[in-house]
């Protein structure tokens, strides 16, 4: 599975992973066996075959992980799901609805969504502490990056394709993730983040209905109250994640807030939205001006 220099993954494994992704996207082949194989390899402490999962998610869902991104792509990745799909990747997500659904169904039917996330998060540290002394430093770095990239890619797929109810039902609370499953804290908050956003939004809607009022200051107050009510249990849960002396320097509230926010919570990338909207307008105008294209194709 490695080239002769023992520092890079073999070309045949990379080609096989790409082939698997292309075949599973085009043909309705049973996915459970492949997903279970990757999970079993991770259980055994082997992360080479994560490359297969990475390619399957990329081909079937259109979510790609690239090592070098332009500034425009980085800006687009701080926006919503639609902006990420339009401007965050080199290849736009097209015609992946059916294949994404098949991948989602395979994960949910065989209960592999959360186990794969946990195994990837655990293996990320396992690459360093369990395999680090046996492998070349360059390869260890490559495998670590592969674990992290695939976790981010896979977690992004789950957050954008699972219904809120399915996601909340499968992902446990932050203290369970960290204390029982020994998930690294950054990965645990990465998995929990979509739940917090949903709970805050639901609580905010509930408070708005309970007390009618359209003043902006009332809305802000209700939103702050919603955040406090939802995040209070999280503030209590994170205390057990660190030694008491850690909380002498920072508060649990600051810690939980830092890890629960995304870039989209801090700022809206207006320039990126405008850029992508203008691109779509140019494409629409080009289609309208194309005299050779039949009218039914323009719709």
Descriptive notes:
This protein has helices at 11-26, 32-43, 50-61, 71-76, 81-87, 97-109, 113-129, 137-161, 164-170, 174-180, 185-210, 216-238, 252-260, 263-266, 270-289, 295-298. With 299 residues, it is mainly alpha-helical. It has three domains: 1-170, no CATH class; 191-266, no CATH class; 269-299. The model has no long low-confidence stretch (mean pLDDT 85).
**Biggest beta-sheet profile:** none
Q: What is the tally of beta strands?
A: 0
Structural classification: mainly alpha
Rough outline: globular
Number of helices: 16
In which range does the helix fraction lie? 55-70%
Unreliable runs, pLDDT <50, ≥5 residues? none
What is the number of independent domains? 3
Termini, distance in Å? 48 Å
Mean pLDDT, nearest integer?
A: 85
Q: From N to C, what is the helix and strand string?
A: HHHHHHHHHHHHHHHH
Classify the beta-strand content into a percent band: under 5%
Oligomer: single chain
Radius of gyration: 22 Å
